[in-house]
Amino acid sequence: MKKHEIAAKRKRKFVITTDSKHNLPVAENKLNQDFTAANPNEKWVTDITYVWTKQGWLYLAVVLDLFSRKVVGWAMDASMEKELVMKALQMALQARKPTKGLLHHSDRGSQYASNDYQKLLNSNNISCSMSRKGNCYDNAAMESFFATLKQEQGLPPAI
């Protein structure tokens, strides 16, 4: 391998993007791993990951419509505060203008459980759903999207 200048790809260190150790209210898991949607703006899933850019590692928050699997909102920042996820949601709301009845699913992270984020959901008549503690399968559609994104970018598919 040395002679031909071949090197194995090394896995990057796992980075935790979910801060679920908080005292904020957590919503019931209404999505319940049903990743089908009959219409646009029926079910949205969201999460945070990190990606390599020319500026270095940045956090990426994405809102995905389960009907089309289309990204309807996103935001990037060097930190993963609640403002990051709020910007992604605001982009989705402005682009899609959903009517009452939209189900919004996320993990239990403090960003999604924050009072400001929950107020934004409530003021737009959006029903909140959150994954069960430690169950990545509850948001598998979003995890799959991130894995594909990182594979296409040449990054390891860590969450």
Detailed description of the structure:
The chain has 159 residues and is an alpha/beta fold. 26% of the residues lie in helices and 23% in strands. It contains four helices and five strands, in the order βββαβααβα. The chain has a five-stranded mixed beta sheet with strand order 3-2-1-4-5, sandwiched between helices. A hairpin with a 2-residue loop joins β1 and β2 (56-65). The chain is globular, with a radius of gyration of 17 Å. The two termini are 30 Å apart.
In percent, how helical is the residue content? 25-40%
Element order, helices and strands?
Answer: EEEHEHHEH
Taking the alpha carbons of the first and last residues, their distance comes to: 30 Å
Please outline the major beta sheet.
5 strands, mixed
Q: Helix/strand-derived class?
A: alpha/beta
Tally of strands: 5
Label this structure with key terms.
5-stranded mixed sheet; 26% helix; globular
Record the SSE blueprint.
Blueprint (H helix, E strand, L loop, with lengths): L42 E11 L2 E10 L4 E8 L4 H15 L6 E4 L3 H4 L1 H9 L3 E4 L9 H14 L6
Parallel strand pairs: 1-4, 4-5
Antiparallel strand pairs: 1-2, 2-3
